Amino acid sequence: MDTLNQMLGQVLADPQLRQWVLIGVVGLSALTLFWGLTLVASGVASPYRRQLREIQREVDEDEESLEQRLVIAKEHGSGFNGHRVRTLLVHAGYQKGSAYRVFVGIRVMVILVSLLVTFVVLNMMTQLPLSGILLVLLGVGYVAYILPVFVLERLANKRMTRMKLAMPDALDLLVVCTEAGLGFKAALQRVAQEVSMSHEELAEELTLISAKLRAGFSMQQAFDEFILRTGLEDFKSLSVAINQSIQLGTSIAETLRIYADEYRIKRKQEAEEMAAKVGTKMIFPLVTMIWPSFFIVAIGPALIKVFRVFGNM
């Protein structure tokens, strides 16, 4: 507090004005911290209390469904706005209504903690002027603001990758179940149970598709919502093919087998592509770490002898 008061004294000569500015900064920081903690607490509060509060509000309009919110988010582009964050939260598996409030609370806390730690470190280890400190704090605040979005995007991409890699195996199980005589809805539920241990995310999505089909949703609508929730645009053709097979009465097992082979080939090609990139990715660590060590070991003894010879001369 004394350090902050001294910094304000370098800018503001009036002691009374400096005191009011200091009170305002402290109050604003406290309010921001309280707001962030409130958002986090409201997101993880008891679901029964949240339900009671929602009943007491007497909402006139129905809340938009998850899929409608995703469509709206998709239409608003891919910036750092709330729509983009909500889409990433759903793709990462955080599909509850309170997920966005929790994310905003975490983001506010990350910004405050980053600014506080940076301010303390700068005052203890450097002698920067006030303008320099403010510039550094501005940069740290911006990084702390966008960092949670990048972390969330990485989590969403990892979840989508796991589901994409698990889909060929799930389609093989669907082929086996349908050829054994199960209906498609029952086969989906059975496959969801079988893959729940190895591919938990895909099992949850298949269970949700099965539940929507039992609730009266059409096949096309259920799979379209699955694509919106997961962000896996590659499975649109699979959705269309399954819907056509059911409508035309053709063998759905054969359709599933074709797409299972196709996705398995894609998975193999992606693995080969990743293996082909290893050599290029190894160039930087080889040049910066291994090659200097090899150079020192190979040329070092000879250089030492040369220096000794010239030293004796």
TrEMBL record:
Keyword presence, Signal: no
Protein topology in the membrane: Multi-pass membrane protein
Transmembrane residue ranges: 20-45, 102-122, 128-152, 283-304
Protein name, per record: Type II secretion system F family protein
Keywords (A to Z) from UniProt: Cell membrane, Membrane, Transmembrane, Transmembrane helix
Main location: membrane
Cited InterPro entries: T2SS_GspF_dom
GO cellular component, one term: plasma membrane
Subcellular location(s) of the protein: Cell membrane
Pfam name, any one: T2SSF
Domain of life: Bacteria
All residue ranges annotated as the Type II secretion system protein GspF domain in the record: 171-298
Organism: Oceanimonas pelagia
